């Protein structure tokens, strides 16, 4: 098997687990967790915040591990976190144990994606790297759809949510073994794992980091509050209680498979138009949740649009950072994901304030406005992907 196929498939599986059930499963099964453990919305928010903090720490740990022993180590560590965390959730007897399992599982997302920029840069030819990274990032869509389908099937069959988490853990273990084998050639090889903050803190990279920050804020708001907003509006007609979130995850994941064509679309229309178009898709998705939270058409279109935005923009961030900083593929992508993580922390806090001060609809319209404003700011002359020569062509970002 060629390095392109081997790493693309392994990375797809890794992100499917770490960014699918491991990262999103808590929100998907929140109603069942509240019933089983008597946790409040406040406690649920603290657990989720702990998971996002773990994600942030995982990003830092992933870069350090990649620089030390190559990209295979952090990927394996991340999948181990996911597998163990999901087992702990499945066996949880109280809210404390549940929180531990959720935080362990969500931490895996920090480890499981960014090292692939390093691995792909080492093993895959330059012309195929954007396609490989697009495939890796799109694993999230399969993970989300799988989690939603399992949740819906168990709900309709009256089975326990614990069965779902046992199944997720088994899939995580399989992905761990597959990645251990597939990444054998990059084990112990850090590649170009240098750290150089001055090289990446340059003005031409600002559009990348601002897009990543906006992405983190708006996607976290959607993941955290969209399903609850639909449920509070009465849910989707014809579904049992709690069925709407599962259906939304399924639509989200299936639509996100469109991201497999991200590199081809970028080649056809160019990076600036692709970035702006995706940000407008995000704005549409968030506005639809605000304006039609109990309409099948509105919610379905919102879920599909958000899935397309998340998966395609994830691919864009991966190959955009790799193209700008080919000498620092893992470090530059880690910095980009740190911007996403910062947005993930800021997003729920801003959303909670807007929702309490005004309404849920105002919260989503505010998020839509942020996506739209970011799209307007991404002027074609500012969005570039040519490798940066920091010594000649780029100016450092001003110090604050």
Structure summarized in a few sentences:
The chain has 400 residues and is mostly helical. Helix content is 77%, strand content 0%. The longest helix is centred in the N-terminal third of the chain and has 29 residues, at 41-69.
Description:
It contains 17 helices and no strands. With 400 residues, it is an all-alpha fold.
What structural category arises from helix and sheet content?
A: mainly alpha
Count, helices = 17
Oligomer: single chain
**Are there runs of 5+ residues with pLDDT below 50, and where?**
390-400
How far is it from the N-terminal to the C-terminal residue, by CA?
49 Å
Strand content: under 5%
Along the chain, the helix and strand elements come as: HHHHHHHHHHHHHHHHH
How much is the radius of gyration in Å? 20 Å
Number of strands: 0
What is the general shape? globular
- Share of helical residues: over 70%
Biggest sheet record: none
Average of the residue pLDDT scores:
86
